[in-house]
Amino acid sequence: MATYLTDDDIRDQFSTAMSAMYQAEVPQYGDLLKLVAEVNQDTLTRQPALAQQLSANGELARLGVERHGAIRVGSADELAMLRRLFAVMGMYPVGYYDLSTAGVPVHSTAFRPIDKAALARNPFRIFTSLLRLELIENASLREQAAAILAKRDIFTPRVRALISMYEQQGGLTRAQADEFVVEALETFRWHQEATVDLATYEALQHEHRLIADVVCFRGPHINHLTPRTLDIDEVQKRMPLGGMDAKEVIEGPPQRQCAILLRQTSFKALEESICFADQQQGAHTARFGEIEQRGVALTAKGRALYDELLAKARQQIEGQENLAHQQKLAEIFGDFPDDETELRRKGLAFFEYSLTEAGNAVSGTYEQLELHDKETLIANGLLVATPLTYEDFLPVSAAGIFQSNLGESQTQAYQGNANKAEFEHALGARVVDELALYAEQERLTYQQSMQVLMG
Ligand code: OOG
Ligand code: NI
Description:
Layout: H1 7-25, H2 27-46, H3 48-56, H4 60-63, E1 67-73, H5 76-87, E2 92-98, E3 106-112, H6 116-121, E4 125-131, H7 139-150, H8 157-169, H9 174-187, H10 198-207, H11 209-215, E5 224-227, H12 232-238, E6 262-267, E7 271-275, E8 281-285, E9 288-294, H13 300-317, H14 322-332, H15 340-345, E10 351-355, H16 357-361, H17 374-379, E11 383-387, H18 395-406, H19 420-427, H20 434-454
Parallel strand pairs: 1-4, 5-9
Antiparallel strand pairs: 1-5, 2-3, 3-4, 6-9, 7-8, 10-11
The structure holds 2-oxoadipic acid and nickel (II) ion.
The site of 2-oxoadipic acid has 12 residues, from strand 1, strand 4 and helix 18.
């Protein structure tokens, strides 16, 4: 009988290959990786408590391999095939993001691993956006874009065959997996040659820069990769010293004692020369490098508070440079509890539970009745709560990242528009609800701890 690699192995191998390809394509991303590794090392040395916590969460090991990337596709067929491609690597669509309200004519999901062991091994994620041609007002341009997209196939015939093989066999052998990684990578490669002439490119570009980026090339080139840093403020500060043109502000919450959700910044997209189908030369700006710092996942209640404070801050931080922006944000986020115990007691963040040594020592001695007082068990040193890391994305931040790499001028919102049902129809599957995943992990680990206590 043939033995198959695990999905996790294939994802790990693919993520390494993708990073190597992007370093070769965009050398500045390689510089960014070095800078982040340096700052992470300094941070761990300076903050032993943080090192301890990451190690307890099983996150220290994944830190060096952790990254996300992003692509944008043009049709339902492309999205549905990508779903099958990512499934080979144990990556599933989690979350629905509507970016039309921020003036970006796409909606998106993140393909990522879901269970704890898979995340611990390599949490590689790809933020994947589907262009919404229906939001283009100019009918003839809309039809032209659809016709151009209909002519391309972003997958190699061999990767299609290997995906079918995986689905039939339930896995890939080492040789098949090696081949899969090479073939799958082709979909994400950069092409210097556009599929359209310069005039068509310019017309689409004029409608929206993102439309030109999606429509005019042979495939959905990976547009950035993002390592995870432990100190985003420090990397932001050091980026210009390394010759990187950093985005003005860090997106997301301000710096805090207890990091929440996700903070992100990037170096701006590079201008790259393009050869158009009519042999004219031109340039296109799409690819950049990004960094992220991750904190605890918030409950619906915590998220509502985050959204409320961010909305409140919005007018006051608009157009500010980063330090003033961060200061103002910190002031307004004074209303967001910054203490693990309080976050837990107020039900603002998700945690997972485990018994301490003392807890394990009294296993089997607890009565059903005592079950419910979580806080007493914690106070008595029997149970510990560990924050669950946020593994997803933030639509307002994502829009900020899109904007800074598309040029700031196009920020007008489209009318009308989350359409999750249509996205799922294109995808050919439902997206997983990210909040349900965190809630389930919290519930399960608490229940397991209680079962041990009660024997
Ligand atoms: C995706 C931008 C979103 C993030 O980290 O929020 C994103 C894109 O520019 O295609 O990657
Ligand atoms: Ni990103």
